[in-house]
Structure formats: structure tokens, C-alpha cells
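Journal club prep, notes for RB
We'll compare a predicted complex against what the paper describes. Inputs for the BIS(adenosine)-5'-pentaphosphate case:
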Amino acid sequence: MSPLPENTLIGMCNPLLDIQTTVEKAFLDKWGLKENDAILCDDKHNDMFTELTRDFKVEYIPGGAAQNSLRVAQWILNAPNRTVFFGAVGKDQYGDLLASKAKEAGVNVHYQINETVKTGTCAALINGTHRSLCAHLAAANTFTQDHLQKEENQKIIEQAKYFYVTGFFITVCPPAILQLASHSAEFNKTFTLNLSAPFISQFFFDKLSEIIPLVDVLFGNEDEAAAFAKANGWETTCVKEIALKAAALPKKSTKPRLVVFTQGPEPVIVVEGDKVTEFPVTRLPKEEIVDTNGAGDAFVGGFLSQFIQGKGVEASVTCGSYAAQEIIKKHGCTVPSVCKYH
Ligand code: AP5
Ligand code: NA
């Protein structure tokens, strides 16, 4: 058993059931989707979900970015309930399925349950080695800050030492994010945030900017880094330079900010304070790649599984890459039954 106390890491995000299938480029064009993107759906996509479940062979896979990461972290930690998850679902079959899959993985799920809105879904449309995500948040979008005020959740928040929130959650409940981030800063804990998708920097930059001063660890991939740079008015697309600038943004506590940017098979860029390190990635042979869906989430899960044990950045990145590769070798963000990581 891991000596790590229970409820060390709290994750907060949208719990979504992924509806995954393979589509042609023409299908993406028809619904106005890009090959490699993550967006929120609007009313014009309702018929797309109908078409998908009617005409395609779809797989239902537990998803939602932070929940994926926590499932992966639990898989590596191999001791239940070291991580807790907050997010909102409906009172329905999909919500029950998400809860059972998360619990099975060892995540201590504390959903806010909305009796009148359906559990959120995410179309994960695979096209070759690309994937296009179109999230229908539904119940996930109804999360309210009072869920955090519940006595049982207050206790968990006091116990926790690390927090992981996705940029995706900025579209849902910024006050809840600020509450956890402020608590973290006040008690000298560690608050981590993922940029999640370019649209967050493009369309929710004001809210994102309010949270950044409280962020101790910032995750993202190269596209998200570029969108963040653009929103900040930085005229560079160099991932290292963006990471340095992000690390140097104003910060509430004196702890130096850590920035971790992944770039697929290219090296992981890490900035600690003003020091840049590149961690090379062992490229997977093409025949071993099933789909990269969830690679970024798995990387974060692996990274955090070590980081919350007080292991250093190098050990955390190594485990992040290991976890990402295991997920790339399988459909969706799913892990093999046994974890061989030591
Ligand atoms: P998705 O965005 O697919 O997952 P991801 O984990 O972010 O995967 P990406 O493929 O985007 O990876 P990345 O670009 O972040 O990482 P990178 O390629 O740099 O999201 C999946 C989930 O998002 C779904 O479950 C869905 O439910 C959820 N979601 C969507 N919208 C949402 C919303 N609004 N709210 C909540 N959830 C939402 O790779 C990372 C690492 O992988 C690399 O550093 C490396 O170590 C490794 N790696 C990558 N490629 C290779 C390679 N070729 N060989 C070896 N290692 C590799
Ligand atoms: Na991503």
C-alpha cells in the first residue's frame, strides 16, 4: 500500500461519457468540426449525436479530462481513494456508469447529482491518427459552488494537499475553481491547472487570467500553449519561450511556477522558475499506436501520481510519458488491468 494519505489529490472537471467512433473527414466537414480539435457543441450538433448513435458502431468509454487523469493516477498508485473527484452528473444510466468505472479505478467520486439534466457526453471522432472532440456538457454544466460547501466535501478539501482542475471547467464554474485555488494558496498547498484546449484561451481568457496567479503547476500541449501565447499578446510560437513567459506571469505565492508542455512525440518542455529542461519522448512505433485519445490526460495522471508523492520533476515526467504510451496502445483513455510501473 502506498504511504500516501487518502484524498491527497482533488480533481475537478466535467465528468463525461465518451461516445467514440471512427469517421470520415466528410462527416467532420458536415458538422463543421476540425480533425484535431476540442470544442463545446451547440444546438446544431444535436442531430449529430442522433446520427452517431443510430448509424455508427460506437463505443461508450468513461471520459472527462480530469477524471481520465485521476483514473490513470490511481492505476499507478495502486491504492484506492488517494484521489477525489468533483463534478456534476445526471441521475441516469450514464452517470451510474461513470461513477462505477471511476470507483472501480479507485477514484473517490463525489459527484453533484442533478436530477433534471442528463449526464454529459463527448463525441470522440477518430479520423486516422487524429481525433476531434465535441463535448455536450449537459449536467456537467450545472455544477455549483455549494457542492464544495457540503460538510463532507469541506473535510476532503482540508485533507487534500494537491488540486488539479482543467481549463475545461472554466466554462462551468470559475467561482469553485477560485475557491480551491485560494484555499491552496492560503495553506501553502499545490494548485495545478491544465490549459485543456485552445478555445479556453481564445474565449475565456478573462476568467483564465484570474486563476493564473494562483497556479503552481500549469499543463498544456503545444496548440494550447500557442493559443495561450496569442491571448496574452506574446508574439511567439516557440513552445520554450511561451513556457518561460507563462512561468514568469505574476504569482500570488512565492513558490516558483512549474510549466509542463507536451508536444506529442516531441520532447516535453518543463520550466521551473527560469530554468528550461527538455525531456525526450521515446517515439512509439506506428504499429503500436491505436489512438492518441487521452494521451495528454494520461500524461498528467502519470505525472501527478509521482508529483503528489513528493517525487521530483524528472520522475514525474518519466511516469507521465509511460502512462501516455500505455493509453496510446489502447482505445480511448483506458489502461491495461495491471500496472507494471515501479
Ligand atoms: P484528448 O484531448 O483526446 O486527450 P488528451 O489526453 O488531451 O490527448 P491529446 O491527444 O490531445 O494529447 P495532448 O495533445 O494533450 O498530448 P500530447 O499529444 O502532447 O481528450 C480526451 C478527453 O477529453 C475525453 O475523454 C473527453 O471526455 C475529454 N473532454 C473533451 N472536452 C471536454 C470538456 N469540455 N470538459 C471535460 N472533458 C472534456 O501527448 C502527451 C504525451 O503522450 C507526450 O508527452 C508523450 O509522452 C506521449 N506521446 C504522444 N504521442 C506519442 C508518440 N507518438 N509516441 C510516444 N509517446 C507519445
Ligand atoms: Na489535450
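Talking point for the session: The chain has 13 helices and 14 strands.
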